Amino acid sequence: MNARDGRRAQSSVIGVVLIVALVVAGTTGVLVFGSDALGDVQDRASAGQAELAMSTVDSEVSEVALGYASARRVSLGGQGQATLDEDAGRITVERVGANATGPPLVNTTMGAIEYRAGGATVAYQGGGVWRGERGRTRMISPPEFHYRWGTGAGSDPTLTFPLVVLRGSASSSEALRFSDGPTRAAFPNASAGLENPLDAGSVRVTIRSDYYRAWADYFRTRTDADTVTVVDANRSVEVLLSVPTRGREVRNSIAARSPTVTVRGGATVDSYNSSEGTYAATRGENGSVYVGEDLVNAGSGTIYGDMRVDGDFEAGGGIDVEGELLVDGDADLSGGGVSVDEKVVAAGDLLLGGGGALDSPAVVGGRVVETGGGVTVNGDVRAGGDYLSADGSTLDGDAHVAGDFHPGNGQNIDGDVTAAGSFADAGVYPNVNGNVVENGPAPDLSDVSAARDLRPPDLRPIDRTIDARVATAAGSNDNAGSDAARIEAGNCGGADPACTLTNGTYYLDEMALSGGDSLTFDTSGGPIYLVVDGDVSTTGGSPVDVTGSNRVHVYAAGDYELRTDWTSVGDRGDQIWLYGTSGSTVTLQGGVDFYGVVYAPGNQDIAVRGGAEVYGGIVGGVSDVQGGTAVHYDTVLADQRPVLTDGGGAPVTFLHVSVNEIHVKDA
Predict the structure, then answer these.
(1) What is the C-alpha to C-alpha distance for residues 225 and 217, in angstroms, rounded to an integer?
(2) DSSP for 458-527?
(3) How confident is the model over 568-599, as pLDDT tens digits?
């Protein structure tokens, strides 16, 4: 063999060795990486089996906890070990703030059944299923934590939380048995004096758990981000819900608890529907006025709608009511100048003054009293008491009374008179041209219930709410990086660019725009909450406008003075809400157009003057609507409430919390 042949032989051997090495290496790689991939598949399958097992546990335990079954058995499939830890997780539900007395409503461990498979842990805890893996947690199925807050009738903010706690000792890869234990009503509990609705303070739910971040994510979807606080240091999440100051729906152009409402000088109250079009296109006659106590009216305006008075009504000047006048007391029209287009309904007496006229029908629960001569009654009258006529009056309509009819001397009676009592004409000489029936049937007074059933909305002041808003916003707000500082300084026009606020919460010491300043609330990203620890004024051609579909809420501890337009999108009367205290004054004048709601219950000084027009509604003490002004009620407000909470967080009025104990053992 020569040298060349030897080298060839060596090359062949080396080649074979290299091929063998490559095969061995490839085979090893396939074995190693294939094994890892197979392991991942097996882990995912095991974790999927764990999720399925715990979801089945969730379904079956709910049947037991809600009383549909006394016990249930759940097969685990034999792929992993499920273990009960009674001490896993703790929940506390407590009332804090005003009226918070006694121990927490709930303070107990929740327990958890944990199923470990493939590096993941899937647990059933508190009525939900949770998964933890590589330091992260997520929810598989939700707990029975139900928070509801709508806008329709009967949709008070409500939290319902039937908590499931696990007790016993179990560890099995085969099956577990769940049986019903005692159930405790934490709230309401009449025997402990704990009843709905909640009247003040806040409700705080705190959960400590290995799955606290997944709990937090779920709570955020059910309430809102501002309500939920995560504390990593002790692996906990807190949900805060506060009892709202009881806001009423805005169902009238003006809703007040004021002894004097002045609508005069050509002022107009009417309605429109912004969901269907502009004011000009949808103008209507649903612009009612509601007064929550005795009312002395002064003025000569027109109300295109009803006037509702939850007390006595005394007319002190001319007013034209195009709808009904409903009075849960005496209706004193003796001052004259009152015109009612549809009907007068009073729970008490009806008083008619000398020389005055009643052109509309009237139904009263008490008497009809003509206080002076020359009264003309053109409408039909039904009364639950006597009819006391004055001399020289005229009755052109029919009268039907449950008592006696007392005619006046020289009274012209051209209509029919029916009295359940007598026609008491002794000593007087009326001119009777109609029919008279004595000892007749009682009149139908069912319409009076509409007046008697008037109940004032809760018009208590919201000072506490505004104080809480101010304190909260002062400590935590979105001012940084916004135009809040320029707005506070009044630098939103002229040499400075116009100011804009986007969704968030902002705090100002005061807001005074003038001299061509301009402010835009851009709600395209969400609602805006502006909290002012002082006065709000816009004067000197400084408009405020809204873009986007969400709402703007302004809470001011001081006074409001609006002399420039505040406009919404599409003439909406529900997009801007101004909240005021009982001690504030609210003035809209100088031809201003304001689209929104002035919400200041308890206030006695809200004035709309000088050609100003409100497109929306007013809740509070309206002292003056005059001088060619108008309040145009937007009917979309009929089922909408203000955003009011005293202690922060989402609102809650009704609370339903129970603790349902479930016993667990190996099956």
Answers:
(1) 9
(2) -----HHHHHHHHHHHHHS-S-TTSSHHHHHHT-SSTTSPPEEE-SEEEEES-EEE-TT--EEEE-TTS-
(3) 999 999 999 999 998 899 999 989 999 999 99
Are residues 240 and 202 in contact, defined by beta-carbon separation less than 8 angstroms? yes
Helix, strand, or coil (residue 612): coil
Instruction: Name the helix (H) or strand (E) containing 107.
Output: strand 106-109
Residue with tokens 């928070």: 147
* Distance from C-alpha of 498 to C-alpha of 519, rounded to nearest angstrom: 6
How far apart, in Å, do the first and last CA atoms of the chain sit? 82
Alpha-carbon torsion 400, 403, 404, 408, what sign?
negative
How many angstroms separate the CA atoms of 69 and 53, rounded?
Answer: 19
- pLDDT digits 0-9 by tens, 116-142: 877 789 999 999 999 999 889 999 999
Question: Which residue from 566, 619, 593, 653 is spatially nearest to 251, judged by alpha carbons?
Answer: 619
CA distances to 91, 109, 237, 354 from 205, rounded to whole Å, are: 7, 13, 8, 66
Separation between Cα atoms, residue 515 and residue 568, nearest integer Å: 22
Distances (CA, A) of 10 to 19, 21, 600: 14, 16, 102
Helix (H, G, I), strand (E, B) or coil at 285: coil
- Sequence-ordered strand ranges (E) for 201-259: 202-208, 228-231, 236-242, 254-256
**Residue 89 near residue 126, CB atoms below 8 Å:** yes
- CA torsion sign for 457, 462, 464, 469 is positive
Round to whole Å and give the CA distance between 391 and 603. Answer: 44
Angle, CA of 428, 432 and 436, to the nearest 5°:
100
Burial class (CB in 10 A: 0-12, 13-18, 19+), 291: buried
Task: Tell me if 435 sits within 8 A of 415, measured CB to CB.
Answer: no
Distance CA 524, CA 382 (A): 56
Verdict on whether the full-model pTM lies above 0.70? no
Identity of the residue numbered 246:
R
- Pairwise CA distance, residues 209 & 108, whole Å: 12
Question: 580, 555 in Cβ contact below 8 A?
Answer: no
Q: If DSSP codes are grouped into helix, strand and coil, which group holds residue 18?
A: helix
The Cβ of residue 4 has, within 10 Å, a number of other Cβ atoms equal to: 8
CA distances from 145 to 148, 221, 236, 559, 657 (A): 10, 11, 17, 41, 9
Task: Give pLDDT < 70 ranges for the chain.
Answer: 1-45, 47, 78-79, 98-99, 149-155, 224-226, 244-249, 256-266, 292-300, 316-318, 455-458, 623, 627, 645-649
DSSP 263: B
Beta-carbon neighbour count of residue 395 at 10 Å? Answer: 30
CB environment 91-103: b (16+ within 10 A), e (fewer): bbbbbebeeeeee
Q: Nearest to residue 320, comparing CAs of 297, 303, 344? A: 303
